[in-house]
Amino acid sequence: MRTKYSILTVLAAILASGSFAQQLPQFSQYMQNMYVLNPAASCLESDIDINLGYRQQWAGFDGAPQTYYLSGSVNLGKQPEQSGASYSIPISHRSLLQTREEIRKAKHVVGGLVAVDEYGLFKRTSVMASYSYHHPISDKYWISVGTSMGWYGLNFGADNVILENPTDNTYGDFIANGNRSNLFDINAGLFIYSDRLFLGYSVYQIAQNEINLGNESSPVNLSQAKLNIHHFATLGYSIPVADKVDITPSVMVKLLGPAPVSYDLNLRAEFNRKFWLGVSYRNEDAISGLAGLRVNDWLRFGYAYDFITSDINNLSSGSHELVLGIQLDRKNER
């Protein structure tokens, strides 16, 4: 069954991908996988970190954004041979810091992310590869720098359009000049962390490549539209409040071009390293409930539900996000 769009809806969808709109997926469960916001935030807790994610934004709203992704990162360094030593900060095993003598060595981490982001008539496919370098800067703190680069493919779904006016010349001219665009881009990030603190900054879509849909003579012209630079800043600190209970307040600030500053205020409680509950507020957009479960030492699952607070709350039943994480450690190499 094909979705019906009037020409005005088509134009609105086209403009939504242009110079003044958010062009990257939005996440509520990013604390489970900081790598989706910062290429330097890779392999923070394990040698191998794999995450599968799905987000349905504005459920019940026709053409609402949907995002699927698979990310993974691998630490290329070797664990120290000394018995009982640890080569990195075990954020998920904080007690080890008090029971083992640490040997802290620099880490080289490679990773990648494949994502599909669908919104309205558009589909964006991303394939990115990353490298990050992690260096100890004190007894408890690390600093990492990272970059990712790769390909974006933007596709306009012309096959899903039925025009109210089948002979609309504006739409016909736009489609005739191309409904696909291939772009190369680069991202970069900085991350400072310990077993309790994280502080990060990243910048995405540095190349600001042209989208190149349509052409200069087309009445609907995106040939000069560009990818916007997106800035992300994150800060959080885990506070022990009781035996086996930690509270983590955090904030994420997002800035893109002339759009208003967006921020998330988060509060998460983790119980005995088995499960966590949390709440998040995104200004002028949503209030989110967060929950997660560590099934065992290597498998964890997270879910977020966003209650929409913006003007479209009467048209949507909310947003849903699922993340499945796999964390593995290699044995000592001798």
Notes on the protein architecture:
It is a single chain. The protein is mainly beta and 334 residues long. It has a single domain, classed as Porin (Beta Barrel). The protein has helices at residues 7-16, 96-99, 169-176, and strands at residues 48-56, 66-75, 107-119, 122-136, 142-156, 180-193, 197-204, 230-237, 239-242, 245-256, 262-271, 275-282, 286-294, 299-308, 319-328. A 14-stranded antiparallel beta barrel has the order 1-2-3-4-5-6-7-8-10-11-12-13-14-15. The longest helix has 10 residues, at 7-16.
Relevant terms:
334 residues; mainly beta; Porin; 14-stranded antiparallel barrel; 3 helices; disordered N terminus
Number of domains: 1
Write down the secondary-structure element order: HEEHEEEHEEEEEEEEEE
Q: Which structural category fits the helices and strands?
A: mainly beta
Which overall shape is indicated by the principal axes computed on the Cα atoms? globular
Overall pLDDT: 80
What's the story with the biggest beta sheet?
14 strands, antiparallel, barrel
Q: Please compute the radius of gyration using only Cα atoms.
A: 22 Å
User: Widest sheet: strand order?
Assistant: 1-2-3-4-5-6-7-8-10-11-12-13-14-15
CATH fold-type name: Porin
Low-confidence stretches: 1-20, 80-90, 96-101
- What is the CATH architecture term? Beta Barrel
Number of helices: 3
Q: How far is it from the N-terminal to the C-terminal residue, by CA?
A: 59 Å
Which superfamily, in CATH terms, is the homologous superfamily? monomeric porin ompg
The tally of strands reads 15
* Level-1 CATH class name: Mainly Beta
